[in-house]
Design goal:
Blueprint: E1 9-14, H1 29-43, E2 48-53, H2 61-66, H3 71-95, E3 100-104, E4 113-114, H4 117-125, E5 129-133, H5 143-153, E6 158-163, E7 184-185, H6 187-192, H7 200-208, E8 213-217, H8 223-228, E9 235-237
Parallel strand pairs: 1-2, 1-6, 2-5, 3-4, 3-5, 6-8, 7-9
Antiparallel strand pairs: 8-9
Bound molecules: uridine-5'-diphosphate.
Uridine-5'-diphosphate (UDP) is lined by residues 15-17, 54-56, 60-62, 75, 78-79, 81-82, 135-136, 138-139, 141-146.
Length: 238
């Protein structure tokens, strides 16, 4: 049955590290399957879902360039890492009977679709989960910026950022038990206090396009569905 939700179309952003589970590197198939299940429960509510997955579990441009690699080359490697994660998520979702498309900002026709905005919108209308890969296609950006860009382009109502904690805190809640969680926080305060929700360019882009960011815990089973139905704890950056 359909649970009440006020959302018709959302974008789910997860980091590459969310797919790592207990591993130190790469993909943990049971964790990928669990997140796919979370996506399915929201898809079953009739919500149209776009996804952006990071690549940090495989490669990060900044660490590559710190090891002497040219920054742009390292960033392209990071973008390719996100394509691998997107394909893993596609496979897990299709295993649950959900129709999906992986759509890459860097064309690689044998592997997935190139990004064509109108075509992607059509997929969403047909209830296909669209997994946007290769970030923005540009070095010096992150997948948080890509998530904000795609959410705006797809007219999503909000970005749901699944993390390890249930919202935005004034201090790291894993280190400081007295840390306070915000129910709501403004884009400007996130930037000013350096709250580490997303990088500054992503927050600024969200602010300029009035795209709300809902930060919630992806570790909570059924959490994504609950948040969409207005339950559980989370922070809205607005
Ligand atoms: N990246 C990039 N341009 C983009 C998106 C990503 O160059 O538009 C590269 C960048 O090197 C980044 C890597 O891809 O370090 C992986 O993405 P990200 O760090 O955002 O992944 P996450 O931290 O979410 O796992």
């Amino acid at each position: 049955q359909r649970a009440a939700t006020t959302y018709d179309r959302v974008l789910l952003k997860i980091s590459g590290e969310a797919l790592m589970g207990s591993l130190a590197y790469g993909l943990h198939p049971p964790t990928v399957a669990r997140i796919a299940q979370e996506v399915k429960t929201v898809h079953d509510m009739g919500v149209e879902i776009a996804m952006v997955i990071g690549g940090g579990n495989i490669f990060r441009g900044l660490s590559g360039s710190a090891q002497g690699m040219e920054r742009t080359t390292a960033d392209y490697m990071g973008m390719l890492a996100t394509v691998m994660n997107a394909l893993a998520m596609q496979s897990a979702l299709e295993g649950l009977g959900i129709h999906t498309r992986v759509i890459s900002a860097i064309p690689m026709d044998q592997v997935c679709e190139p990004y064509i905005r109108r075509r992607a919108v059509r997929h969403l209308e047909k209830k296909r989960v669209c997994i946007f890969a290769a970030g923005t296609g540009n070095p010096y950006f992150t997948t948080d910026t890509a998530a904000t860009l795609r959410a705006a382009e797809m007219s999503c109502e909000a970005i749901f950022k699944g993390t390890k904690v249930d919202g935005v805190y004034d201090m790291d809640p894993k280190k400081f038990p007295e840390a306070k969680r915000y129910d709501r926080v403004s884009y400007d305060e996130v930037l000013l206090q350096n709250l580490g929700v997303m990088d500054a360019s992503a927050i600024a882009l969200a602010r300029d396009n009035r795209m709300p960011i809902v930060v919630f815990s992806l570790d909570e089973p059924g959490g994504f569905r609950g948040i969409l139905a207005g339950q559980g704890t989370y922070t809205i950056v607005h």
